[in-house]
Design brief:
16% of the residues lie in helices and 28% in strands. It has four helices and eleven strands, in the order αβββαββαββαββββ. Strands 1, 4, 5, 8, 9 and 10 form a six-stranded mixed beta sheet that branches. The protein has a five-stranded mixed beta sheet with strand order 3-2-11-6-7. Strand 2 and strand 3 form a beta hairpin. It binds ligand MTE and molybdenum atom (MO). The site of molybdenum atom (MO) has 6 residues, from loops. Molybdenum atom binds next to loops. It holds the Pfam family Oxidored_molyb. This is Sulfite oxidase-like oxidoreductase. InterPro entries: OxRdtase_Mopterin-bd_dom, OxRdtase_Mopterin-bd_sf.
Length: 218
């Protein structure tokens, strides 16, 4: 499914975003200082927009499975009960979408990345991470960007179970990068020796996506 070409409305949306990437749309050419809370070219919203490829998979907690594989000593497939037995933490952070909206002070609850790393134990040479979701979406991170203390495998937002629209039952949250790096409906996390660009990265988006550096397009 991950390699299927999107069709219909979804195809239209993908083409529009690709065209923006080619045209460098939304780039301001400014660089922001860390004291500035809103990254360059962003505007603040108070609602919580929904962005995806138009498919919102219905993943029941009963059938939920997260596979973690690749360069690890202990590959696992985690079900919902197991996920809830792992360490749980709350994080509050600002999120930034490449389509220009930012939202402050989002509270997320879930499993910190370090707890996952403790469970699977990386092998030497694991330098990149690839994510796959139930809608066929994929994205990629470096180990360094994934293993940050603020990152979570989140099942709750503002103390409530994450809604299906926002990627429930489980999504990745990597707030220091544009939100396309935060996989909704995550089903597989693979640790790799080589970088594996994902859905938007192969369609003109930046490989890393730092909002402070305005790394929108690559
Ligand atoms: N599985 C999956 N995850 C995804 C996407 C997607 O299409 N599928 N879209 C990404 C993009 S482009 C954005 S901006 C955020 C949006 O998250 P939200 O809908 O909770 O605001 O999800 C990211 N994660
Ligand atoms: Mo996005």
């Amino acid at each position: 499914m991950a390699d299927e070409e999107p069709s219909g409305i979804r195809q239209k949306l993908v083409e529009t975003k690709q065209a923006w990437a080619r045209a460098g749309r939304l780039l301001t050419g400014q660089t922001a200082t860390p004291e500035q809370r809103l990254p360059p070219g962003q505007r603040l919203v108070t609602d919580f927009p929904v962005l995806d490829l138009g498919i919102q998979p219905d993943v029941a907690k009963e059938t939920f499975r997260l596979t973690v594989d690749g360069l690890v000593e202990n590959p696992v497939t985690i079900d919902w009960a197991w996920l809830n037995e792992l360490p749980q933490e709350e994080r509050r952070n600002d999120i930034h979408c490449v389509t220009q909206w930012s939202r402050y002070d989002n509270s997320w609850t879930g499993v910190p990345v370090q707890a996952l790393l403790d469970l699977v134990r990386l092998k030497p040479g694991a330098r990149f991470v690839s994510f796959e979701a139930h809608d066929g979406y994929t994205t990629n991170l470096t180990m360094e960007d994934f293993a940050r203390p603020e990152n979570l495998l989140a099942h709750s937002w503002e103390g409530q179970p994450l809604t299906r629209q926002h990627g429930g039952p489980l999504r990745v949250v990597v707030p220091h990068l544009y939100l396309w790096k935060s996989t909704k409906w995550v089903r597989k996390i693979s640790f790799l020796s080589q970088n594996k660009p994902g859905f938007w990265e192969v369609r003109g988006y930046h490989d890393r996506g730092d909002p402070w550096l305005e790394e929108r397009y690559g």
